[in-house]
Amino acid sequence: MIYTYLGPAGTFTEAALLQVPGARDAERIPSANVNAALDKVRSGEADAAMVPIENSVEGGVSATLDAIATGEALQIMREALVTISFVLAVRQNIDSLEQIRSVSTHGHAWAQCRGWAEANIPGAEFVPASSTAAGALALLDDETGHDAAICSPLVARERGLKILREGIEDYQGAVTRFVLVARPGPIPAPTGVDKSTVILPLAEDRPGALMDILEQFVVRGVNLSRIESRPTGEGMGKYFFSVDVDGHLAQERVADALAGLHRVCPDLRFLGSYPAAEGLSSSVDAHNSDNAFSKAHAWVHGLKTRLAT
Ligand SMILES: O=C(O)C(=O)C[C@]1(C(=O)O)C=C[C@@H](O)C=C1
């Protein structure tokens, strides 16, 4: 297996990839951004890419949500959760917060430390970086660049960076969710605690269009764990929904909901069923169990055998 991930080495995304059994000893190619990582998978240069998709404080990672929703089809094989904590790393000549005029990090990391930054380095300019590790490593390479970087404690320690403050995140215990994405292939077998992801473009802007979609889940007792609307880029007011549901394609209620969605949303994109990284809370009523669906299908099938030909 050849893996790629949002690099350079030392990103939270690499930490997520290292949770995948075997990834530590496999070839790992860093990519400069999410699109580059997914392109490597689409072209066959890598077999799978780990990319961030959602943070418990800042929400969805738009670059990933958009890139997997369009273009050549991809499939989510698994997910990984990483607890996020940030340090403030500085150049060797900086000894106090007052000396910091510019700070670099990834946009999602900046959003998670904004309160701390406003209170502690109010005058500092934010310099966007392609990842937290890229912002941190520039402290070593680029003598003319920013004074400080917000990054993981790990990359700061491994690269011998000077740490001025630790635990600067606004919300302790924040978590980022990552997905491992591959070219479409076999769908991982159900584990009993699974998720499925589906992209639902709105066919037309009319009253009840979202209700038609949600109804497909509600009537089959399928719980949604995430729903986000993203602009398609094709003009104002054009959106698709990116949805995670509890359950696996192998479960009748999920398969039946997908069939219903295909009728109301024919351009939908199924992004996969895969093991959930943590236990799901939703329970399934008896009338939405596989058994109830099988009995109902068998009953209708029996009736149909009596149709006059
Ligand atoms: O910059 C990194 O280290 C990343 O892995 C990216 C990323 C993100 O996109 O959310 C991952 C985790 C943190 O929430 C901040 C940044």
TrEMBL record:
GO molecular function annotation: prephenate dehydratase activity
Enzyme class of the recorded protein, top EC level: lyase
Sorted UniProt keywords: Amino-acid biosynthesis, Aromatic amino acid biosynthesis, Lyase, Phenylalanine biosynthesis
E.C. number: 4.2.1.51
The Prephenate dehydratase domain, residue ranges: 2-183
Residue stretches spanning the membrane: none
InterPro entries the record matches: ACT-like_dom_sf (IPR045865), ACT_dom (IPR002912), Chor_mutase/pphenate_deHydtase (IPR008242), Preph_deHydtase (IPR001086), Preph_deHydtase_CS (IPR018528)
Reactions performed catalytically: prephenate + H(+) = 3-phenylpyruvate + CO2 + H2O
Pathway: Amino-acid biosynthesis; L-phenylalanine biosynthesis; phenylpyruvate from prephenate: step 1/1
One Pfam family linked to the record: ACT
The ACT domain, residue ranges: 198-275
NCBIfam families xref list: PRK11898.1
Protein name: Prephenate dehydratase
Source organism of this protein record: Paeniglutamicibacter sulfureus
Gene name as annotated: pheA
